[in-house]
Design brief:
The structure is a single chain. The longest helix is centred in the C-terminal third of the chain and has 32 residues. Helix 4 runs antiparallel to helix 5. The chain is built from five helices and six strands; from the N terminus they run βαβββαββααα. With 170 residues, the protein is α+β, with helices and mostly antiparallel strands. The protein has two domains: 67 residues, no CATH class; 83 residues, no CATH class.
Length: 170
């Protein structure tokens, strides 16, 4: 006789595993299938000589939602970890993502307005170089990427400035 299931769940990653768990706790039956020979999707780990090894690259779980944190904590013990990425440029360490500390160290600026001015100067400089390099496709491609990175930094700065202004009640 063929078994019947309430749900067929394709993929045993985070969503599939959580959905199956919650459905079963509510009295439903589930068949979970995955093309891989393990559950957990991209957060799957294997123990090698007593060490948990991330098979698909490192992963960090973070949330500011207490309900989500408490739910996940029912199934796993978390290590205390603070993600503090840095970049090295010309033998100097810089904070990532960019913040006022980064801009201060790069350009000696102290205010968001000064950082915006500096970024705008760099964008204008890059646009001038792009016009001059229009006949050199490879160089134009490099300059376009630089300009987009500068614009992204400016956008991030604007967003942070607006957020801080709202928090300060301005």
């Amino acid at each position: 006789m063929q078994q019947k299931y309430d749900y067929l769940i394709v993929g045993a990653g985070l969503f599939g595993a959580v959905f199956a768990h919650e459905a079963v706790t509510r009295g439903k039956t589930c068949l979970v299938i995955d093309r891989r020979g393990h559950i957990g999707g991209n957060i799957h780990c294997e123990e090698v000589e007593g060490i948990q090894v991330h098979c698909y690259g490192a992963h960090i779980f973070h949330t500011s939602d207490k309900e989500v944190w408490d739910y996940a904590g029912r199934f796993v013990t978390f290590n205390h970890f603070v993600n503090s990425p840095v970049a090295i440029y010309k033998d100097e360490l810089y904070n990532l993502p960019f913040n006022m500390n980064t801009f201060s160290k790069l350009w000696g600026v102290r205010t968001p307005a000064q950082a915006q001015e500096k970024i705008q100067e760099q964008i204008a400089e890059l646009e001038g170089k792009m016009e001059a390099a229009a006949c050199d496709y490879e160089r134009l491609t490099e300059l376009t990427a630089e300009r987009e990175a500068a614009q992204a930094a400016l956008d991030t700065l604007y967003e942070k400035w607006e957020q801080l202004s709202e928090e300060a009640g301005e």
